[in-house]
Automatic annotation (TrEMBL), chain A:
<feature type="domain" description="ABC transporter">
    <location>
        <begin position="15"/>
        <end position="276"/>
    </location>
</feature>
<dbReference type="Pfam" id="PF00005">
    <property type="entry name" value="ABC_tran"/>
</dbReference>
<keyword id="KW-0067">ATP-binding</keyword>
<dbReference type="InterPro" id="IPR027417">
    <property type="entry name" value="P-loop_NTPase"/>
</dbReference>
<keyword id="KW-0547">Nucleotide-binding</keyword>
<dbReference type="InterPro" id="IPR003439">
    <property type="entry name" value="ABC_transporter-like_ATP-bd"/>
</dbReference>
<dbReference type="InterPro" id="IPR032823">
    <property type="entry name" value="BCA_ABC_TP_C"/>
</dbReference>
From TrEMBL, chain B:
<feature type="transmembrane region" description="Helical">
    <location>
        <begin position="12"/>
        <end position="34"/>
    </location>
</feature>
<feature type="transmembrane region" description="Helical">
    <location>
        <begin position="316"/>
        <end position="332"/>
    </location>
</feature>
<feature type="transmembrane region" description="Helical">
    <location>
        <begin position="590"/>
        <end position="609"/>
    </location>
</feature>
<dbReference type="Pfam" id="PF02653">
    <property type="entry name" value="BPD_transp_2"/>
</dbReference>
<feature type="transmembrane region" description="Helical">
    <location>
        <begin position="268"/>
        <end position="287"/>
    </location>
</feature>
<feature type="transmembrane region" description="Helical">
    <location>
        <begin position="344"/>
        <end position="366"/>
    </location>
</feature>
<dbReference type="InterPro" id="IPR001851">
    <property type="entry name" value="ABC_transp_permease"/>
</dbReference>
From TrEMBL, chain C:
<feature type="domain" description="ABC transporter">
    <location>
        <begin position="6"/>
        <end position="238"/>
    </location>
</feature>
<comment type="similarity">
    <text>Belongs to the ABC transporter superfamily.</text>
</comment>
<keyword id="KW-0029">Amino-acid transport</keyword>
<dbReference type="InterPro" id="IPR052156">
    <property type="entry name" value="BCAA_Transport_ATP-bd_LivF"/>
</dbReference>
<keyword id="KW-0547">Nucleotide-binding</keyword>
<protein>
    <submittedName>
        <fullName>ABC transporter ATP-binding protein</fullName>
    </submittedName>
</protein>
<dbReference type="InterPro" id="IPR003593">
    <property type="entry name" value="AAA+_ATPase"/>
</dbReference>
Amino acid sequence: MADQLKNSLPKKPLLEIAGLTRRFGGLTAVNGLSLTVETGELVSIIGPNGAGKTTLFNLISGLDAPDAGAVTFEGGDVTGLSAERLAALGLARSFQHGRVFGNLSVLDNVLVGAHTRLRAVKPQIPLVGPLVELALALIRPPSVRAEEERLRAEATEIVRMFGERLTPRLDKPAHSLSYANRRRVEIARALALHPRLLLLDEPTAGMNPTETAEMLEIIRGLKAGGLTILLIEHKLDLVMQLSDRVVVMDHGARIAEGPPAAVAGDPAVIEAYLGHKAVGAANQDGPNQDGGRDAEGDAARILVAH
Amino acid sequence: MLPTTFGPWLDYTINGLVIGNIYALLAVGLALIFGVSHLINFAHGSVYMVGAYIGWLCVTKLALPLPVTFVTVAAGCGLLGAVIERVGLRPLRNAPRIAPLLATIGLSVVLDQSAQLLFSPDPRALPTQLPTWRIAIGGGSIGALDLLIAGVGIGSAGLLYGFLRFTKLGWAVRATALDRDAAQQCGVDVDKVNRTVFAIASALGGVSGLLVGMYYNTIDPNMGFQAGLKGIVAQLIGGVGNVPGAIAGSLLLGLIESYGIALFGTSYRNLFAFVALILILVLRPNGLFARARRLPPEPLTGTFIAPSRPLVLPKWAVWTLAALALALPLVVQQPYLLQTLGNAWLYALLALSLTLVAGTVGQVSLGHAGLLAIGAYASSLLALDAGVPVLLAVPLAGLVAAALGTALVYPAFRLRGHYVSIATLAVGEIVTLVILNWESLTRGPIGVTGIPPLSVAGKPLVSGQWVYWVPLIVLLAFAALQSRLLNSHLGRTLRAIREDDVAARSYGVDLNRYKGLAFAVAGFIAGVGGALMAHFYSYINHETFPAPVSMLALTMVILGGLGNVAGAVLGAAVLVGLPELFRAAAEYRMLIYGVVLLLLIRFRPQGLLGTV
Amino acid sequence: MTDVLLRLDRVNSFYGPVQVHFDLSLEVPCGQIVCLLGGNASGKSTTMKVILGLLKPRSGQVVFDGQPLTGLNTPQIVRRGIGSVPESRRLFGTMTVRENVLMGAYTRSDAKSVAEDYEGVLDLFPKLRERHAQQAGTLSGGEQQMVAMARALMGRPRLIVMDEPTMGLSPLHVDRVLEMIQTINRQGVSIFMVEQNASLALQIAHRGYVLQTGRIVLSGPAADLARDPQIRDAYLGGAQAA
């Protein structure tokens, strides 16, 4: 009976964005964008460079404030909430260019990710809370030590997910890591937050095919574990394999949305990716006259390949 | 005291505009430099001082006519500016952003100290050859020098406008300021642009120094520090890098000061400027005339502090060194040596405090001596006026410094990079000025005399060993506590803020909370340090902890390695202990610190033990 | 004198400890449009920086018109005849359109022929004539791209390097920009363009290279590349697992 009732209730999406707009001077980076992400879903955002994808992530994660529109997270209005508040609500993100803490070790980077989960050392006492935290950090009663031990063990576990790439470098400063390893540290740091929603901004940028395949497996594993993920990615192959839904952005607006296969055939998408002239050619799908036309036809097929 | 007729107010207005013109000459140069190199040039005040001295040489020694004096000052300072750019800043082009800022501080110390050695610290008169007539207008009056200053101000602004608007090099300056890379890709030699801008800015700054010298008929080697700060304040009021804004901001600042003096008296003069600065930084960080809603961009990625591999001292080595240090008075008995080292340990407390905020959290404070002053005054006054036992007064003074220091710097927590340095510098100055002016509490310029020494069970600890042991024991205790703090979750949290505050926020780190904690701990340590100094010195006044002490502390911290606890102790021992032991003449000491700072920034920015 | 205008010869470049290019070699023949394709963070914009002398490679060299550019700074390289259209235009926002375009002639001292060239450029981009007194920052994206190209042309370059010239432009403007590039190329200027969007770039290029994590993984005539099934794996990532 209770189950029935639960199922009959309209399911609230985990994240709901409505009419989000952000302008920089004359440029409208995000323009009246709306989208929803259901719990457990993996939604990908694709679109050419400059389409406003990263600005959208900044707006969702509280690093930037929208000029108009609303963001709802787990049913509550979180528009304009600060990044630190959103993190506490369970929202974690990675950054496009990688923003690891260079002079911190890999382990410490991941532990900072668990900052919002500190309880024993950070009791919620108004006003004198910071001083109590300072005292507990210096005195370190057993509860604090146990918490730190537990988080360290867990952080090490998370790093192990990335196998031999990262585990031997646990105590190395992050500035000594390769580009790909920095991206892995970012994701490990995000996972340490135990996110309700994970925003990944081009997690495979700068990775070769082997590394990309590894990352794909890791993301697939996270998804299988029930994690809700919003993904920005250029490697369409990966997008097609992982996504439940794909949202296509261009000029700050959503130009298409749907299951991967449907989106790939959308003329608006092909136009955004291939330019104005390409649409006719792609629709004809006939033999091509010259090299230039050839490119368009072929690239269109790339999009629908999966 | 309040002037009741209209006449004096007109005089105050004229006076304010004249002073404003002088600030404008400084601020315009700072704005130009910030435009092309995104640097707030702390050496600009020193160039102004050099300008005044070149003018003094021309007028009194060479008896040159006034126009020739002006040309010589402009040329000499222009050349100095070009040299500063070439020697001090160009080698640091690819260094972390903190490096050029620190280099200009080092350069300013070197220039000021050199002037002091060359011309003696005493003020000199700089007579004008101008006629002494004054024109009366509506109750006020304008003199020839006022007109000259106004003429130079307006004339320079006109020339500058023409240069930027109509010459090829002027276009290159504007283009470089707007987008350095794109300008280079148009074939602009940005080194040449930088050199030109430094030369122009310094020529204007030098002329400004000359005019001020003539206006007040006095110059001294330390005149540049306050003036440079005023230029920075004026520039911030107008919006950094904004040339017309700098002029408007300067005139406004001149008027605020002039009216403020009319209402409250001369000794408050500088307070207005610094309070205005804090208000501007908090309320309108882009300046009065900006429309943008966000702070000017600091680099969003890439660390403010260079990557480093710190040297980690093994535990046994730390214990051995501590034990050896404690045992030293058993072997060495010369009171002078022990006293010197004791003094070094007191300064090490300041360095420990600064390395936490500047090193661990990356908030480069330039007003740290203010915390010493708060601690020293709090403890002395508690002991003298409230009858609190010294042993209790010292930790209470630490608490006062922690609370007051954090509260004063709190408005600056939302600022980043160079702005933090400027704000803390201003806070340091405000502390000094409040001490000077709040006579009923602090005894004003007379200072506090007869401060009781530290005593245990009625036995005063004044002998050589105790002057050494007390600071050392306190230092070791704080060093141990700070190391423990850095090993806790707070250590990684504070360092994460330094490395990338945007990423830290995204992981739930509340910047205000943790910056506040760091400043509170730092305030406590420095406050206790200041309190101990007061009880050992037995006399303090508002000049016991001047701004150069803050620079010295910064040099110690950088020498040891930012954020490095052992490094802070080492830095203090080297910089306070060694010059004393080698009996280097006292007047050369600050010069040595300046040179050491410059060399470190250039050749070993991570310090001796490395950034932690 | 030589058929190859620009040649990168086994370039290895680094950002701090991180290596960006691994033995990168490529050529731009005289009079051709060559595109360098690759995803974000593949090292393609860094290639622009290396050519323009903004980043010094640790080993290897850049040869322009038979002369190595080693040891030259950016202004000197620009004087040799390389113009640039940087990523996202990078105009001087508060300077006028006219000032922006004339900044492109900064290295030239022949005032008379600069004035002639300015007229010529305005003929090529008539829209800019109407807007010459307007602040460049207030223009639309497509118009800004015109200013950037006009600026690059004013230096009378033999080669123009472009970083993602179509980024953030509306489809209509994308077509216009591609046509402009071809027009410029027909006047004898070689083009080296860095693009993320392979399909767009291959429409107008003669040759293409595909860059992946700092290595060239594919190269050839544009028409061949467009047909090559491998380009999908190389350029679009090709996660073959599963």
